[in-house]
Design brief:
The complex is a heterodimer of chains A (287) and B (278). By secondary structure, chain A is α/β, with parallel strands linked by helices. Chain A contains 11 helices and 11 strands. Chain A has 2 domains: 222 residues, P-loop containing nucleotide triphosphate hydrolases (Rossmann fold, 3-Layer(aba) Sandwich), CATH 3.40.50; 56 residues, Alpha-Beta Plaits. In chain A, strand 10, helix 8 and strand 11 form a beta-alpha-beta unit. Chain B has 278 residues and is of the alpha/beta class. Helices cover 35% and strands 29% of the residues of chain B. Chain B contains 11 helices and 11 strands. In chain B, helix 1 crosses helix 11 and helix 5 packs parallel to helix 6. Classes of the chains: A alpha/beta (287), B alpha/beta (278). Chains A and B meet through helix 4, helix 6, helix 7 and helix 9 of A and helix 4, helix 6, helix 7 and helix 9 of B.
């Protein structure tokens, strides 16, 4: 079984639309949405949830005010400024390390589980789907990504799937690294803007750093053909295969508004280009 | 006044909004907190004059003192220490520098080393005092870099903060303490869905906020209807134009190309000021 993650560095380049398009083409595939901060793939997949699990991120400190003597030791030792001088815990700053609990001389602080969100396993018209929802202002999204990926691997193995396609988050930090470690291939979706190019270079360096094979797709390549040329040169120079150039087409946005994949919505040049790209990726993955 | 620009969904136009407002209002401070993918200076074009590495601490074990008891590894909430019968391993990228391992070590075998995880750069133009940060490739934690950036804020200045996408820790760290937050979205199901998540975050933090709709015309009315029912101000609508996308692709700020846009973004700022004064 193979794993493919779609990422971008810069947000909004079309990761989810392209992942959804692949869903219409891929056979015997499991899907996972690892953009747990702002998950969107379910809007097109319309999953039928069959299993829902609570997700506990890092723990959080809780103060028993009756026991607390206001000695301020916890305030002094907390490196995250998560405790104020009246010994209230700032929920959004606490990283759950447990130092306050350890240092408290009267045992007034407990570390408690926090309900940070949910992970789901669902059925969709494209196949099984693992996804999640992080609650407002919760952290540990990297940890939740790992939960989603482990669920996906488990189901894919049970159902004898050939491939897992993972919709990844933007950026280069913790949830991105969790989404790409150990996968067989990363597809980087970029756009021909100076911002897109800048972010493409940073995210490809992440894939080099972790030695994960990567290929690139330029979305809306005709918005700026000069920048597209620069991206092509960059890919050539760094030996990253360019697997697709998708033209700007308002149908991409329109299909999303209709909550359909591009193939369910319309049949144009755009679709041909995506099909060609999918075939290239399949052959790289030896599927 | 501190105004932050955030979005939930990536690529909706945060940086476009933040840079165009900054260029419309004269003197201000601009802090690009999207340290994973900082793009604001592509549009502001300030000359970077200084750069400083951002370091975090991580434990360094004196193996001649360590008796491999495993207390530090048991304590560590981040799995950054592994103890095997005759050895101890540290994973610096996972360490949150909480200091707990040193506290629990019975042999006093733990000292702290520093390592760089990113950098903060400063640049200046006639009007803009500019800061941005970079998280190093392969690093997990953006928050320490964002914290350093936010220490540069001069509270009495006009401050524009460009936040990263998403709704979790780096976003919270970026927008916390703002007087107002602009949420940029697009009128599509993805934009709408993620806008609702972003609204939850700013409400949770009690930050007054308004919405800018970018790429107006590509989708439906759900975002507008939502704002009406929830009594959320729509500060501006930016139409979908290939020309705007093209200018963006070349790194040109809209307000530098058109006086009309200059007026409009300036007006957004004035409106926010009025809302906050009332």
């Amino acid at each position: 079984m193979k794993q493919l993650t779609v990422i971008s560095g810069k947000g909004g380049t079309g990761k989810t639309s392209i992942t959804a398009a692949f869903a219409s083409l891929a056979k015997n595939t499991m899907f996972a949405d690892c953009d747990v901060d702002a998950a969107d793939l379910h809007l097109i997949f319309k999953p039928n949830i069959i299993e829902k699990k609570k997700f506990h991120g890092l723990k959080i400190a809780s103060v028993n005010k009756q026991k607390c003597t206001l000695c301020n030791k916890c305030y002094d030792y907390c490196r995250f400024n998560a405790i104020d001088k009246e010994i209230n815990i700032k929920k959004e700053s606490c990283e759950g390390c447990g130092v306050c609990n350890y240092i408290c001389p009267v045992n007034a602080i407990k570390m408690i589980e926090r309900d940070s969100g949910f992970s789901y396993i669902s059925n969709t018209r494209f196949g099984p789907f693992a996804h999640a929802r992080l609650k407002t202002a919760e952290e540990a999204s990297g940890k939740l990504v790992t939960v989603v990926r482990n669920d996906a691997i488990k189901i894919a193995e049970e159902k004898n799937k050939d491939l897992i396609i993972i919709d990844g988050p933007p950026g280069i930090g913790c949830p991105v690294i969790s989404s790409i470690t150990g996968v067989d291939l990363v597809l980087i979706v970029t756009e021909p803007s100076l911002s897109g190019i800048h972010d493409l270079k940073r995210i490809t360096n992440v894939t080099f750093h972790f030695k994960i094979p990567a290929v690139v797709c330029i979305n809306k390549y005709d918005v700026n053909v000069y920048n597209t040329k620069d991206i092509e040169k960059y890919c050539l120079y760094n030996k990253i295969p360019l697997v697709g150039k998708i033209p700007y087409d308002i149908s991409m946005s329109r299909s999303m508004v209709e909550e359909k994949t591009i193939f369910e919505y319309y049949n144009g040049i755009l679709c041909l280009e995506i099909k060609k790209m999918w075939e290239k990726i399949r052959s790289i993955l030896e599927l | 006044m501190i105004i932050s620009v955030a979005s939930g969904k990536g690529g909706t136009g945060k940086t476009t909004v933040a840079t165009n407002i900054a260029l419309s209002i004269g003197k201000c401070q601009f802090i690009d907190c999207d340290v994973e993918e900082p793009n604001a200076n592509i549009f502001l074009k300030t000359k970077i004059e200084s750069s400083k590495n951002i370091s975090v601490t991580f434990p360094n074990i004196n193996k001649s003192l360590c008796n491999f008891c495993g207390k530090c590894s048991d304590f560590c909430a981040y799995n950054a220490i592994a103890v095997v019968p005759e050895d101890i391993l540290i994973f610096p990228e996972l360490c949150h520098s909480c200091g707990g391992c040193e506290l629990v070590c019975p042999k006093n075998a733990i000292k702290w080393h520093k390592r760089a995880i990113g950098k903060v750069e400063h640049g200046i133009t006639k009007d803009i005092d500019f800061y941005h940060g970079f998280l190093n490739v392969g690093e997990m934690q953006a928050v320490p870099v964002i914290k350093t950036l936010k220490q540069k804020i001069e509270k009495n200045n006009n401050v524009i903060i460009d936040a990263p996408p998403g709704t979790s820790c780096p976003v919270i760290e970026s927008i916390i303490g703002s007087d107002y937050c602009i949420l940029v979205t697009e009128p599509t199901p993805f934009g709408f869905h993620d806008l609702k998540l972003a609204v939850d975050v700013v409400r949770y933090l009690y930050i007054p906020f308004g919405v800018i709709i970018n790429r107006d015309g590509i989708g439906d009315n759900k975002v507008e209807n939502f704002c009406k029912t929830e009594d959320i101000d729509i500060l501006l609508k930016i139409p979908e134009r290939k020309m705007i996308a093209h200018l963006y692709s070349k790194g040109f700020a809209l307000v530098r190309k058109s006086y009309e846009w200059h007026e409009m973004f300036g007006q957004v700022y004035n409106n926010i000021q009025e809302v906050l004064q009332n």
